Amino acid sequence: MQTPQSLLFSPQHLWTKTTADGVWEAGITDYAQNLLGDIVFVEAPTVGARLSAGQPCGLVESVKTGSDLHALMNGVVLEINQAVIDSPEQINDHPYKAWIFKFQADNNADAEQLLSAAAYDALTDA
Fold this sequence. Notes:
Helix content: 10-25%
Order of helices and strands: EEEHEEEEEHHEH
Protein name: Glycine cleavage system H protein
Family: Belongs to the GcvH family.
CATH class: Mainly Beta
CATH superfamily: RNA polymerase II/Efflux pump adaptor protein, barrel-sandwich hybrid domain
GO biological process, one term: protein lipoylation
Oligomer: single chain
Pfam families: GCV_H (PF01597)
Subunit structure: The glycine cleavage system is composed of four proteins: P, T, L and H.
Structural class: alpha+beta
Strand content: 25-35%
Radius of gyration: 13 Å
Largest sheet: 6 strands, antiparallel
Number of domains: 1
Number of strands: 9
CATH architecture: Beta Barrel
Distance between the termini: 7 Å
């Protein structure tokens, strides 16, 4: 499995990165999509919703099971990726390109609490 070095990760198997405008993108990891199997439904958080780090904010369902999306940091949802909502299999095909939502973090320094690629690999024994 691939774990891009440029991303940050949560123990709940989400990845994030900042964009050029300081907004954060979030999606599920390759490890998570592999465990879930064929993804058939994504419920993203609502635009404008408050995020609380570690708390459920959405849902991903596969043919096997469902799994909550947990917020990576405190913040506000700015955008959802409608293309992924409409075609959730994109997550299986390209998990690190198929972002699910974008958010504005309350404090960008909170990213220091997230896992590096090496720490995430150690968590998942990848």
